[in-house]
Design goal:
Blueprint (H helix, E strand, L loop, with lengths): L1 H29 L6 H8 L3 H8 L2 H11 L1 H11 L9 H16 L3 H15 L3 H4 L1 H20 L5 H17 L5 H5 L9 H19 L4
Helix pairs in contact: 1-2, 1-4, 1-7, 2-3, 5-6, 5-9, 6-9, 6-12, 9-10, 10-12
């Protein structure tokens, strides 16, 4: 009897994750307002009542997608707070903490779907109503900006804040790298993750330095 109960619990967990996986894919492509609970149930191949049972509302389900990926944000903060290695450039240390866990997470279809989901949520004018960016991403923003100002004492508060926002734009849009092949007529190919990561780190670091004496 106990063994049967354990199997039932495992089945419920599996179905819950199945729903979350389907929801992540759909929201990444259609945005919050373009996807219904029924769409998610159909994609997950479960009944709508099961989705409602686990999450109650679409917003609860949507928020859970960010909660289960919170480890990526925690890893970024962990890297940010690591002591500098001998001879390590402080700004590069900060930028790598900002970029690496996100790029590593893109090494799977699920990771790419989550990256697209973040891009959609961050660029949605109605994101403030859901409070997800404020809850999950703003605390990291505060830490990142603080670290920049400590690494570059001459940088103004205004420049540090804009630097963070522009860095977010570069990082978030990097997931859409296949577009570069279209706009270049195929002359430029999408980069492998390692190459793209190094290019992105260099780009963000140079952008922060370039803005110090301009705004």
């Amino acid at each position: 009897m106990a063994e049967a109960s354990a199997k039932e619990r495992n089945t419920e967990v599996s179905r819950r994750e199945q729903v979350l996986d389907a929801a992540e894919r759909l929201f990444a492509e259609g945005g919050y307002n373009g996807v219904s609970m029924r769409d998610i149930a159909n994609a997950a191949e479960v009944g709508l009542p099961l989705v409602v049972y686990h999450f109650k509302t679409k917003l609860n389900l949507y928020r859970e997608l960010f909660e289960r990926r919170k480890a990526v944000l925690d890893e970024r903060l962990g890297l940010l707070h690591l002591p500098l290695a001998a001879g390590e450039d402080p700004l590069e240390h900060i930028v790598r903490a900002f970029v690496l866990p996100v790029m590593t997470n893109q090494n799977s279809e699920a990771g790419i779907a989550y990256a697209k989901l973040v891009a959609r949520e961050a660029s949605d004018p109605r994101e403030v109503d859901r409070g997800i960016v404020a809850e999950y991403f703003d605390p990291f923003a505060v830490e990142f900006i603080r670290a920049i100002r400590e690494a570059l004492p001459s940088i103004s508060s205004r420049t540090a804040h804009w630097s963070y926002l522009f860095a977010v734009g570069a990082l978030v849009m990097s997931v859409f790298d296949n577009r570069i092949e279209r706009i270049s007529g195929g002359a430029v190919k999408a980069m492998d993750l390692d190459t793209k990561t190094e290019h992105l780190v260099a780009f963000i670091k140079a952008g922060i330095h370039a803005g110090i004496n301009r705004i």
